[in-house]
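Support reply, case 0932

Customer input (verbatim):
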Amino acid sequence: MPEERKPQNFEAKLQQQDWRFSVSEESSVLEAALIAGIALPNSCRNGSCRTCMCSLVSGQVAYKIEWPGLSKEEKEEGMILPCVAIALTDLVLLVPHAYKKTEEN
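Our regenerated output:
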């Protein structure tokens, strides 16, 4: 019987805040951040509204959808949509409006 493959986990770091969280290759970057108690700006969660758009400082992502709501130029500048992005490596992100979730928010 073939050995069951465990999902790979990567580390994501928010550069300005120096917050870190684990990202499984089975979840989006946004989902992983929310599970870790870190709120990233978001709305539609399907790659079209662009609310979550942020800068990928380093690392690589793939997308759950064929063409997320980013222009070619935005992709070339390193912009990503965490709501539909899957980590392929450890990531460093620039997300100025991220905050830690509390019971009040």
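We compared this against your earlier run and they match. Two observations from our side: The chain has a mean pLDDT of 92. The two ends are 47 Å apart (CA to CA). Please reopen the case if you see a mismatch on your end.
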